[in-house]
Amino acid sequence: MRNMLRTALLLGCSALIALPAFAETALSFRYNDPDPEVIEAAIKAFEAENPDITIELERIGWGDSRTQFLREAAVGTGPDIVHIAFVWPLEMGSAGALLPLNDLIEKNGAGAGFDDFIATDLARDADGKIFGLPWTADTFSLVYMPSVLEEAGVEVPKTWDDLLAASRTVTEKTGKVGFGFPAGGGPTNTIWFLVNYYLWSNGYALVEEDGNGGFRIGVDTPTLANSFKFFADFMGDGGNPKSNIAFGGLADIGSLAPMVEGDQAFAILPPNVTKALIAAYQEKSGTTDVPYASVGIPTGSVGGVSHMGGRMLGINANTEHPEESYKFMQFLISNEFFSEYLTAQFPASKSALAALEYPAGLEGYGMQLPNARTWGAYANGKTPIGTMWSETGREFGAILVGDKTPEEAAQSLIDTINEMLDG
Q1: What is the distance of C-alpha 333 from the center of its chain?
Q2: Distances (CA, A) of 45 to 20, 48, 309
Q3: What are phi and psi of 139, to 5 degrees?
Q4: Distances in Å between the alpha carbon of 288 and those of 134, 148, 252, 285, 339?
Q5: Which stretches in the chain have pLDDT values below 50?
Q6: Do residues 365 and 271 lie in contact, with contact meaning Cβ atoms separated by under 8 Å?
Q7: Other C-beta atoms within 10 Å of 319: how many?
Q8: Rounded to whole angstroms, what are the CA distances from 390 to 34, 224, 414?
Q9: Torsion over CA of 190, 192, 198 and 204, rounded to 10 degrees?
Q10: Whose CA, among 26, 42, 242, 353, lies 20 to 30 Å from 15?
């Protein structure tokens, strides 16, 4: 009996020793876009290939994501991997919230090489520290509905002034929306993009390099006031319903309901929103037809300039698992991930973008990308883009409700940016 018991114990120990000897690493990934089901499917595939790593998907809206992560990182918490805007890595890196990726990139590589990514100037600081990997790329294009333009007897606008004139004509002749855009002033407002595009297209900028290693305001008060007034003139009779002041960010698809119904001529949109618009129309109409077309944004005195936008991925400086976190990031930037999962967005690598074929309705993005610029001098460490973005929306909102004139709003915004530059 004693020998049998001893044999059983030995066999039991042998069985235990024979079990797989790996420890499971639990990571968290915070994702901000409104299509988590895509990421959930990708996570399952990654976990199947890497059974020693599990990924918990966290969700948050873009309006809260920046401040929430900075608060968490400051006290040693937060997700391991974060989904961040192009313009946040340097700010978050200087705050100690993001882990420098240089050693991980040198050891493991990064796609086709770090220099194959776009917007690397927004990920790498003056000391050469890399705080993010560019993940998805986008810019904006002018999306329009040819049937509405034909009904109103207008041509596709080439300049900003053409757009205002065409928008007014559409509303006057058809009663439909001309150029509709969310006019609310929240922290992720749309007017930030429109005002900057208008300024850039006319040779100005809110912030520019001063030629001496510093930065300065790149626009005067009358010019900025004119840009505010230009977009305020669209409200009401100018073709943008006053009800659109209830919508702020581009993800507020409610402001595009008239376009889904065939009752709006123009919108300036990023590609993921355009794809969602096409899908909504097709679902409503029970068709596979694409009723929209797109071109580059309207031009000013120096062309039609938009921003090279997109998202990056970063690693929390507090993570206990940098290697595993970077392994998941490598999966997210892979060609496999974009071809099988995140098909609604464009990869942020030069080689991948050059090989893209743009489907119907999205041809304008191929036209506009060569004329897109990064935020450049805006991401200088003194003027957080998130703050300027929010302040621009607040000042435009003050104009629309009659609290400020365009001149007062422009001066207030310039004063705010100057205070940050002097701080």
Answers
A1: 16
A2: 21, 5, 28
A3: -140, -170
A4: 32, 19, 24, 9, 21
A5: 1-21
A6: yes
A7: 18
A8: 21, 16, 13
A9: -170
A10: 26
Bridge-based pairing state of the strands 309-315 and 133-138: antiparallel
- pTM for the model stands at 0.76
Tokens 């489907």 -> residue: 359
Token pair belonging to 147 = 């049937």
Determine the pLDDT at residue 22. 54
Position 13 scores a pLDDT of: 43
Mapping DSSP onto H, E and C, the string for the chain reads CHHHHHHHHHHHHHHHHCCCCCCCEEEEEEECCCCHHHHHHHHHHHHHHCCCEEEEEEECCHHHHHHHHHHHHHCCCCCCEEEEECCCHHHHHHCCCECCCHHHHHHHCCCCCHHHECCHHHCECCCCCECCEEEEEECCEEEECHHHHHHHCCCCCCEHHHHHHHHHHHHHHHCCEEECCCCCCCCCCCHHHHHHHHHHHCCCEEEEECCCCCEEEECCHHHHHHHHHHHHCCEHHHCECHHHHHCCCCCCHHHHHHHHCCCEEEEEECHHHHHHHHHHHHHHHCCCCCCCEEECCCEECCECCEECEEEEEEEECCCCCHHHHHHHHHHHCCHHHHHHCCCCCEECEHHHHHCCCCCCCCHHHHHHHHHEECCHHHCCCCCCHHHHHHHHHHHHHHHHCCCCCHHHHHHHHHHHHHHHHHC
Residue located via tokens 């506009």: 368
CB atoms within 10 A of CB 301: 10
Residues facing 394 on adjacent strands:
none
The answer to whether 101 touches 326, Cβ cutoff 8 Å, is yes
Q: What is the C-alpha to C-alpha distance for residues 351 and 125, in angstroms, rounded to an integer?
A: 23
Q: What is the pLDDT of residues 15-58, one digit of tens each?
A: 444 444 455 899 999 999 988 999 999 999 999 999 999 999 99
Q: What residues does 306 pair with on adjacent strands?
A: 372
Reading phi first (left if > 0) and then psi (alpha if -120 to 50, else beta), residue 376 is in: left
Polymer length of the chain: 423
Amino acid at the residue 204: Y
Structure tokens at 260: 């889904």
